[in-house]
């Protein structure tokens, strides 16, 4: 199945767009008329340029306000169409998208529109061109693919077909199964876009908030299942109008686009194997069992400071790597690696970012299969030479150039600690009562959030939690959790819009997106708090107003409230249970640790507390070179 993307979806000039689209592996493009006009090349040159990039122009679009006009506008519309046919022939494409009219003088009437399309089909046929009709969901008389299909059906011309755009159908809540009654050979082209479920004006929503399939909330999978059921096997094309994409790196968006299509068609195949027997199979999304380890890259005095903090958190050194300057720190089921190598990837990560999480390893059912899936999704593989006898842990590039590794219990990777490490002390260490990694918080610029959410949900059997806004004193930070059903893998993506927020400063201070915090779980937050106090773990101060408000909101038992206040522990509650949070002070470039206890089935991350936590962090932050106002 051929893949395509509309040139509007990508930023940059025309050449930037083509390069990015080519390198992401698309077969073709939808050329947006405006993008063509903005170039200084002739139509023939543009056509040649596209083909020089190994791409096909699959569609020219849009042709607006055509059907149902009274004379003399009608005659003019046909003359306009002939001009565009000339252009298409020079560009070298045979299909034009006509979107439903919004013309104030359009008359409506299905038969009138059908007659117009029949005539347009005749004219197109003379030149070997084809017409595709798309219902814009804000079209004046045609805003539903069912009406567009009826017009195409009555136009009854082999050169006139239907174009379906998932946004227009799903944005209007038209059941996708209505597509199944359309013959596949009358569907000329498929445009795909997702969007977040935010109630707003349809046109504004479409032009600013579309995103890649899987990045939003629309049932694009259901839409595509219905399309495939018709027998359609033409191109699938992304048509994404999105404000962030227009400002993002062309290559990033193009690669995400390809990834979203691979992921989408895999979902379609799984949901409806009978209708897509011809699609290639992909290894399934990985089931995450646990976070196997988190590796810090550090060096010099910074490494000593991190060791002090780990010690204060109750971790103890439990072994060393057989050949590298990597120490294993353990507590409960948590494995932290501290890498102080002077060469290689960890070193360059440290030099670039300061003390930073360079690697995260996730234990999955089948590591090689996970790697194969990630590769099919177009992620970048990561390899670094290993000494003989040491394990080559499958790895890809993740957030901010860090490394995401996959281990599994069924291969040699399950013996990682015995093979690659010399363990000083077997068995778990109780320490301060930290049991496991609850979640990892990765901070990035807001424009990258959709991309990383897609990355995680396409690789792992994981879902997105609703996005929450966190009001940092210096700007808004958006937070989106990606989590597996049992919570074995929980990642919170924090997107900073302003460089002055805690998150924004972290990005500039660390030169890019990275893990900003790690939350460890405990089964007894008060016992852990006492143990940490004994070890001198520096805790973030939370002001008294917070506890007064907490009392007002929840009417807590006075004894509990006093204990929370004394321990600087934050509290939240939802329908399922209770949540306790204790924050450490930031260190290094703004990294911090958090300790949490979940009681019952609390599902969140303490979002109501985040504004007060960020304010407290701002009060205690060291100067960062940012003007403190
Ligand atoms: O926003 C628009 O006008 C517009 C144009 C062409 C399309 O294919 C579309 O889906 C929307
Ligand atoms: Mg469209």
Automatic annotation (TrEMBL):
InterPro entries recorded: 4OHPhenylPyrv_dOase_N (IPR041736), DSD (IPR043700), Glyas_Bleomycin-R_OHBP_Dase (IPR029068), Glyas_Fos-R_dOase_dom (IPR004360), IolE/XylAMocC-like (IPR050312), VOC_core (IPR037523), Xyl_isomerase-like_sf (IPR036237), Xyl_isomerase-like_TIM-brl (IPR013022)
Cofactor: a divalent metal cation
GO BP of this protein: 3,4-dihydroxybenzoate biosynthetic process
Protein residues bound to Mg(2+): 439, 517, 594
GO MF annotation terms: 3-dehydroshikimate dehydratase activity; metal ion binding
Entry-linked Gene3D superfamilies: 2,3-Dihydroxybiphenyl 1,2-Dioxygenase, domain 1, Divalent-metal-dependent TIM barrel enzymes
Domain called VOC: residue spans: 290-409, 436-585
Pathway(s) served: Aromatic compound metabolism; 3,4-dihydroxybenzoate biosynthesis
Residues annotated for a divalent metal cation binding in this entry: 134, 165, 191, 239
Enzyme class label: lyase
Keywords, sorted A to Z: Lyase, Metal-binding
EC code: 4.2.1.118
Catalytic activity as recorded in UniProt: 3-dehydroshikimate = 3,4-dihydroxybenzoate + H2O
Domain of life: Bacteria
Entry keyword Lyase: yes
Its biological purpose: Catalyzes the conversion of 3-dehydroshikimate to protocatechuate (3,4-dihydroxybenzoate), a common intermediate of quinate and shikimate degradation pathways.
Family: Belongs to the bacterial two-domain DSD family.
Protein name: 3-dehydroshikimate dehydratase
Organism: Prosthecodimorpha hirschii
Lineage: Bacteria, Pseudomonadati, Pseudomonadota, Alphaproteobacteria, Hyphomicrobiales
